[in-house]
Amino acid sequence: MMSRAPEDVASLGWNPRHIGEIDHRQLKAPSIKLRAAIPCPGGDTIYCVDLRVCRPNTDSLLELGAAHSLEHFLLEGFQQRLPGGFVSVGLMGCQTGFYLVLLNEGRRQIIEDCVERILHGILAAEHVPYANLAQCGNWVNHDPSAAKRVARKLLAERAVWREVT
Ligand SMILES: [Zn+2]
Questions:
Q1: What is the whole-number distance in angstroms between the Cα of residue 77 and the centre of ligand 1?
Q2: What is the fold of 6-160?
Q3: Residue 54: pLDDT band by 50, 70, 90 thresholds?
Q4: Contacts of 45 (CB under 8 A, 6+ apart)
Q5: Which band of pLDDT confidence, cut at 50, 70 and 90, is reported for residue 5?
Q6: CA distance 165 to 153
Q7: Pick from 117, 112, 142: which is nearest to 130 by CA?
Q8: How far is the CA of 88 from the centre of ligand 1 (A)?
Q9: What is the pLDDT of residues 27-45, one digit of tens each?
């Protein structure tokens, strides 16, 4: 897989040493890191970003109800705040965080600010977006209270999001 040059990645605010896979024993959380910057033939770039909420292989994993609700909030928030620049969000199967995929938006500050605003929105939210029969595959499996607890914790640790290892 091709990837953007390290100097390109650094100019977007990322530490080039954190690109790609990292030994999960070294990963800190909460943290946000660039996994890959993939140039496309037409000149576009796809950015794959890891939003790590919990340290891997500890007893503090995301509960599924909270993770599901957070996924919905991230989906709604990125679609609203970065229209045209957001592709998708997915829960990491290990329940330690989320995969974010963006198109032509790889600036760390923009992505971090977007996450921060979404988290503040979660604290104020009265319902989980798309949590209904028509838009969700398991709409009763949501835990907004637990999602708020996670959001509050992430915001309290905002200062260390850049400490990936
Ligand atoms: Zn759902």
A1: 14
A2: Gyrase A; domain 2 (3.30.1360)
A3: very high
A4: 4, 37, 38, 39, 103, 104, 106
A5: confident
A6: 19
A7: 142
A8: 13
A9: 999 999 999 999 999 999 9
Q: How far is the CA of 65 from the centre of ligand 1 (A)?
A: 10
Cα separation, 129 vs 147, whole angstroms: 12
Q: How far is the CA of 156 from the centre of ligand 1 (A)?
A: 26
Domain regions of the chain by residue span? 6-160
Provide the residue type at 51 as one letter. Answer: L
| Ligand 1 midpoint to CA 54 (Å) | 21
C-alpha dihedral sign at 73, 152, 141, 94: positive
What is the 71 CA–ligand 1 centroid distance (Å)? Answer: 8
pLDDT in tens, 120-139: 999 999 999 999 999 999 99
Please give the model's pTM, rounded to 2 decimal places. Answer: 0.95
Q: What distance in angstroms lies between residue 72's CA and the mean position of ligand 1's atoms?
A: 6
Residue 127 Cα, ligand 1 centroid: separation in angstroms? Answer: 13
**Distance from the CA of 155 to the center of ligand 1, in angstroms?**
23
